[in-house]
Write a structure and sequence with these properties.
The protein is mainly beta. It has one domain (8-134): Factor Xa Inhibitor. Helix content is 9%, strand content 48%. The protein contains one helix and seven strands, in the order ββββαβββ. It has one helix at residues 74-85; strands at residues 10-14, 22-24, 28-37, 60-69, 88-94, 100-114, 120-134. The chain has a seven-stranded antiparallel sheet. Strand 5 and strand 6 (100-114) form a beta hairpin.
């Protein structure tokens, strides 16, 4: 399997409809995805000294972070509105291979910065709320 381009790892935000359409959040230069899981330990004296975990149990979550250049796109404005309102909405991650992941996320952090003679940039963090599906 060949290496995939980082520029093809896109974060998209839903339009709020029941069957949402997704718009790419423009200006993202870096993106990162973390899939997290908490294990449920079911080790007992019958485990022979080895830890045993319960398959399918525990709490799973997905975290997404990114950084980019602010362009003022409608998708960025929608993202900012979600951050200010504490709103959960549909987001989609797409990859060069065509694989996609979709779920509901909360904007847990949105930071803006800029230099006097430079562009305005931002970093963001999203936390999943509910199941995240691989499409």
């Amino acid at each position: 399997m060949p290496a995939e381009k980082g520029s093809a790892f896109l974060l998209k935000i839903g339009d709020g409809a029941g069957s949402p359409s997704f718009a790419t959040i423009a200006g993202l230069r870096t993106t990162q995805l973390s899939i997290n899981g908490e294990a449920v330990n079911v080790t007992s004296k019958d485990s022979g000294g080895w830890r045993e975990l319960l398959s399918g149990a525990g709490v799973r979550s997905v975290s997404v972070s990114g950084a980019g250049i602010f362009t003022g796109s409608d998708a960025e404005k929608r993202l900012r509105g979600h951050a200010l309102g504490g709103l959960i909405d549909d987001y989609e991650l797409s990859f060069e291979s065509g694989e996609r992941m979709r779920g509901r996320f909360l904007v847990s952090r949105l930071d803006y910065a800029g230099d006097y003679n430079g562009e305005r940039n931002y970093t963001l963090s999203l936390e999943s709320s509910g199941a995240v599906a691989s499409l």
